[in-house]
Amino acid sequence: MNEDVGPAGPLGTRRVYTLHLDYDATGEGVLTQMLVTVATSEDEARGRFWDTFWQGKAGARDYFGRGLTVQLGVDRERLAAWLTPRFLDRLEVRASQAGALTFSLGWAFNLS
After folding, report:
1. What are the residue ranges spanned by the domains of the chain?
2. Three-class SS state of 66
């Protein structure tokens, strides 16, 4: 295998990733965080997620890491629950043209 090629294409190629964390510990509290970003690897995208939502919070990667999902491209299906089709169209265009992009969306609530 060519060392300059990874599973998503040539190493160093900038790609769009959607990262999503959905957490509910007790059924009363909910935490949702989403990030769309341009990165050269899934690991870089994951790092950007943790820096965006959890910078300086020791243990967050270990505690929430199992629930973090990463998808290549703009995950329109998941984001469509919260964003309009027109917004998603614009996000896809911007992400495909951008050298750097970070779009984050997050919320938490507790019903107790």
Report:
1. 15-109
2. helix
